[in-house]
Structure of Transport permease protein:
Amino acid sequence: MKSALTVLKEQFTSFYLIQRLSLYELKSNNKNNYLGMLWELINPGIQIAIYWFVFGYGLKNGGQGRADVHDVPFFIWLLAGMVVWFFISPAITHSSKSVYTRIRMLSKMSFPMSAIPSYVILSKFYPHLYLTGITIILFQFMGFPVSVYYLQLPYFMVSVLAVIFALSLITSTLSTMIRDVQMVVQAVVRMLLYMSPILWNMEDLLSDRLVTIMKLNPFYYIVEGYRSALLGEGWYFIEHYQYTLYFWGLVLVLFIFGSYIHVKFRRHFVDFL
């Protein structure tokens, strides 16, 4: 618990620097592209179109288009869940390798190591805000106007930031010591896309027992929460309060464990390079 408090304190004391470094990270990643940061929106748009064509049109009903999901057109249902995945996937992947790819530069600075995954995650969060805003605007013209349920969006944004940061403390520490961990993380992230209710509605296709097992995945909670908010389906975190308790319990366990191994091994990070 002492390690968790130490990491938490470092996040607050270094927040201004984390914010500045995250903006620098975002700009530097796109400085050599003619379209710059527009690629942060173009890439998700291309992928959404591909997923919609393959899963919503090509593989269902003999190519006649996929049926609605709970009276919601499949494309809208897909987009409502996919919008947060475009943050989850790069945030997990890049934060897991954030320490060992930047430690030589940052070891010369008065900068807590635990803030390195933080600013990398935050740099991926800015495009997510833009993409979410564009999605909300599109939904206004598709029959899903802004509703009171949008008030839960900030809660789910904080939730996804919390779980990814907790995971990043574990993966970035292990990846620095054992490079193979990064490859495992990439493989797991690809698998998570199909183990989350993004491309298909699990409740209609799987048994109740399998759905319960799938819900052990914390990103199931995040995706369904975003979808409930954007489509105005209800107060997900209240209506599924037991799932909410499980989610935050898991985040707490991951954060305490991640903080412990991070604080224990970070003084030796340079030795693993």
